[in-house]
Automatic annotation (TrEMBL):
It is an enzyme of class 1 (oxidoreductase). Belongs to the cytochrome P450 family. It holds the Pfam family p450. One of its GO terms (cellular component) is endoplasmic reticulum membrane. Its EC number is 1.14.-.-. This is Cytochrome P450 monooxygenase. It comes from Bactrocera oleae. GO terms for molecular function: heme binding; iron ion binding; monooxygenase activity; oxidoreductase activity, acting on paired donors, with incorporation or reduction of molecular oxygen.
Amino acid sequence: MDMLMAGADTSTTVFIGVLLCLAKNPEKQQLLRKEVMRVLPQRDGKFAADALSRIPYLRGCIKEALRIYPLGTGNIRVTPKDLVLSGYQVPKNTWVSVVAASLLMDDRYYPRSQEYLPERWLRSTENDEGAEPLKPINPFIYMPFGDGHSNC
């Protein structure tokens, strides 16, 4: 039952986060609608397998919603050996946590972090506004499904 709920609950949470972000940002919703309407077939047409690769703004909308409304707050790991972490002695078998959720809303890592900007995830050729996207400063901070052997 846990596995069933894990899959259903996370999918629902992501979907709700995307819908909330789009509802609060009608101009982004309109850009997404325009892109989807351009790529999707007519009602009686067939959906092409490569259609998803032609709607990068949708990918950006989902990634940005996951940044603002992450599924988890961070990751916990156990240190495999004694180590020094940011000047602190950390003994072997110590539980350490990365609270990624706070970093996702930090302007030091995500410029204009309080804004919903799907464009930050687009390559410059996909960015209709022509401006360079506000890429994350550190790509290892964005881990909506964890990382390493505990990755979902």
